[in-house]
Amino acid sequence: MTSIRALVLCCTLKPSPAPSSAEQLGREVLAALGEHNVSGELIRVVDQHIRFGVSTDEGQGDEWPSIRAKLLNSQIVIIATPIWLGQPSSVCKMVLERLDAELSETDEEGRLLTFGKVAAVAVVGNEDGAHHVTAEVLQALNDVGFTASASASTYWVGEAMGKTDYSDAGPKPDTTGAATKTLAANAAHIASLLVERPYPAS
């Protein structure tokens, strides 16, 4: 059986060890992927020294190259982000900007190195915007070579202007939990297919 790895890039604004609802949902996605023999890890991006830019290495202590190496070693990449002002977090946008560099990175057959990798999104927030954030992130990831499977997102939003975090909202097996399970099943399925039958040469 093909070995599939997943990487969750958690784009919370909160450095560790502060609790993060985005991290919780990201870890729930990893757990659901584990039911399909997918292993993986989560990186809280704000804990790393990531420089702004659009290259694979911005120098001067930039830690993006180590994250990128893990990304290139994964077949599934999940962006977990909170909603702020109806938008993906600034950390999420920085990650997407760094991934712009992949448009210049190809294999010996002219394919982007991200071809064959499956993208998914996990979104949390106390306001509207989950569908907008999902659309922005998946479109950006598709632009730089990732494939989105059917139902490639899971989300939770609380009451507008409310104070309840996802971690405090209690079990949601029939809503967010069901979406997470579908995301995991479909992402694992497409990832295994793309490992066995890569995209054609460009």
Task: Break the fold down into its secondary structure elements and pairings.
Elements: E1 4-10, H1 21-34, E2 38-44, H2 64-72, E3 76-84, E4 87-88, H3 90-99, E5 118-125, H4 130-143, E6 147-157, H5 176-196
Parallel strand pairs: 1-2, 1-3, 3-5, 5-6
Antiparallel strand pairs: 3-4
Describe the overall structure.
This protein has 202 residues and is α/β, with parallel strands linked by helices. The protein has one domain (4-196): Flavodoxin domain (Rossmann fold), CATH 3.40.50.360. 34% of the residues lie in helices and 22% in strands. Strands 1, 2, 3, 4, 5 and 6 form a six-stranded mixed beta sheet that branches. Strand 5 (118-125), helix 4 and strand 6 (147-157) form a beta-alpha-beta unit. Helix 1 (21-34) packs across helix 5 (176-196). The chain is globular, with a radius of gyration of 16 Å.
Features:
single chain, 202 residues, alpha/beta, Rossmann fold, six-stranded mixed β-sheet, 5 helices, globular, FMN_Rdtase-like_dom, Flavodoxin family protein
CATH class, anyone? Answer: Alpha Beta
Number of strands: 6
Helical amount among residues, as a percent range?
A: 25-40%
Low-confidence blocks of residues:
none
Please identify the structural class as seen in this structure: alpha/beta
Pfam families: FMN_red (PF03358)
Protein name: Flavodoxin family protein
